[in-house]
Amino acid sequence: MPDWLQLMLDSLPKLLWAALLFTAPLTLLSFVLGLAVGLLTALARLFGPKPLVAVARFYVWIFRGTPLLVQLFLIFYGLPSAGILLDAFTAALIGFTLNIGAYSSEIIRAVIASVPRGQWEAAYSIGMSWSQAMRRTILPQAARTAVPPLSNTFISLVKDTSLAAAITVPEMFQAAQRIVATTYEPLILYIEAALLYLAMSSVLSALQVRLEERLNRYGGFLEARA
């Protein structure tokens, strides 16, 4: 067996273990929390009072207009200067959550705004309150439209978690860096890490296609019944 292949096989368990312990939890937690932040921000921009709209716009402007790596450095290395100490995983989680929240808020805001006004009127006509109309009528319709762009955001997040290595989170890419430091084989190890990210992204892309097909069939069924 070639030495490079043996090195890849020996390194694979360590990389997969780092992905399981850190990359996957960081991705899932950041995305779920980011969606919650994004939904609240979108609702604030669409329906909130002017001061709240201004705060939401400022938040989105800041986190969409600055690099994610800089945001992570500010949270992990900058906040201790203000007396706020965070461990690496928590700092990464906060950074990714706020970043995803800013981007997803624009997606959610757009899909909610795209729901026809008649849907609101229909909900009000049968006695629904604003919150009931939003929960039972508007959000389900908006969610179907939001799946493709939010899925793309999730796939991008899987790859972006490699930036957490810069603030010492021992996720998959940093695991590769540590192995490189002892084997002095950066080309082989970084190719292996890239292939693992590619494999994860490919699986998620395939799942996205399946989900979109199911939603399209379900949407077509509802339209036919309507």
Report on this structure.
It is a single chain. The protein is 85% helix and 0% strand. The protein has 226 residues and is mainly alpha-helical. The protein has a single domain (3-225), classed as MetI-like (MetI-like fold, Orthogonal Bundle), CATH 1.10.3720. α1 packs antiparallel against α2 (50-65), α1 packs antiparallel against α7 (172-183) and α3 packs across α4. The longest helix has 45 residues, at 3-47. The protein starts with a helix and ends with a helix. The model is unreliable at 221-226 (pLDDT under 50). Keywords: Amino-acid transport, Cell membrane, Membrane, Transmembrane, Transmembrane helix, Transport.
Summarize the structure.
The protein is an all-alpha fold and 226 residues long.
Runs in which pLDDT lies below 50 for 5 or more consecutive residues are 221-226
* Structural class based on helices, strands and sheet pairing: mainly alpha
What is the H level of CATH, i.e. the homologous superfamily? MetI-like
How many domains comprise the coordinates? 1
Name the average pLDDT.
93
Cα radius of gyration in angstroms: 21 Å
Query: Class, according to the CATH hierarchy?
Result: Mainly Alpha
Instruction: Indicate the multimeric state.
Output: single chain
Identify the overall geometry: flat
CATH topology assignment: MetI-like fold
How large a portion of the residues is in β-strands, by DSSP E?
under 5%
Number of strands: 0
In CATH, the architecture is Orthogonal Bundle
Sheet with the most strands, sense and barrel status: none
- Portion in helices: over 70%
Transmembrane segments: 15-46, 58-78, 84-103, 187-207
Subcellular location: Cell inner membrane; Cell membrane
Family: Belongs to the binding-protein-dependent transport system permease family. HisMQ subfamily.
Protein name: Amino acid ABC transporter permease
